[in-house]
Amino acid sequence: MFTGGGFMDIGFEQAGFDVVWTNELNPVFAKMFMSARAGMSIPGAKRKPPKPNGVSVADLKATQVLREAFKGKSPSMFGIIGGPPCPDFSRGGLNGGGNGINGKLTADFVQLLCRLQPDFFVIENVPGLLQTKKHRRFLNRQIAYLRKSGNFIVDFQILNALQLGAPQDRERLFIVGFRKRLVHRALGRKPKTSERGWFPWPVNPKYRDARQLPWPKTSPFGKTPQKPSGIPDELMVYTYLGPHNDPANIANGRDVFQAHSRKFRTRREGDVKNKSFKRLHRYRFSPTAWYGNQEVHLHPWLPRRLSVREALRLQTVPDDYVLPADTTLCAKFKLICNGVPCLMARAIAEQVRAFAENSMATKLPRPKQMRAKLTARRL
Q: Residue 158: enclosing H or E segment and its boundaries?
């Protein structure tokens, strides 16, 4: 659901999942998604993702989704993933909450999940959905509905892409749910419905304290700053934009807004304190890639904004994911900043897969009460 550019799909496919159905209401996003994925290869992927269903989640019928996804033959296990639009829950957004035009779609998504009854689900959204008191009340109602009407055990956690190995300080809220019987099998016990911490959230000890590393401050633009010692290369912008792997020579590498303001040559490298004209530092990670109205981060050592390919790299999207030339730059950057970093999605997906496989490998004895009910029905 809410496929967008399909970055979350890519992470799940990289972890071995098979994407059989997609949904995206925005036709421009759907077109870009299909074009980019048509030329992309993911090792082990069984198929190319299908063309997105264009019906709003508010109007989708469970029977329609199941029919289109599985052609009448349901698999032994399936799940649903998606990130509903977040402006109504974002600190810098509309703040409409669950009553906003976009916020309502989260509740519609939750209701559809309960009707579809997947074996597991993953919902992604901004941290404000949990951290803001007004929005947290809405979130608690949705989780209560999932637990009661969907028969799910639910866990949720705010994760940072930086702590998982991506070169971006991007926090996101993830809500994971499994059917009660699967959680019982995987854990070997019956957790309380309200229990938290039962899901094995991804943790990379190497980057746990990534923010506390000796990152450089700002440097004069046009100079070559010295790289501090003790900084992981994989968390630095330079690793993704550097001349050793020049993104300008790859598709979408020259898709960039024209530079006119003198600020492109005066803003210090690493100065990201203002709302606009944030210039990245080559030896630091990127702030959250949240772009709009041509407000794309500035290149560390060149007098321009980031290109489409550079922004995709900071979202850890593979280079064979190519957006079509006939789409506007505004639409491309909006699609990019809406996505979950592929590396982050893959980290979640690997934990979901391990938990699901564990639940399938463990067979619990059927409770006596359940055996009695089945016997009564047969009689």
A: strand 152-160
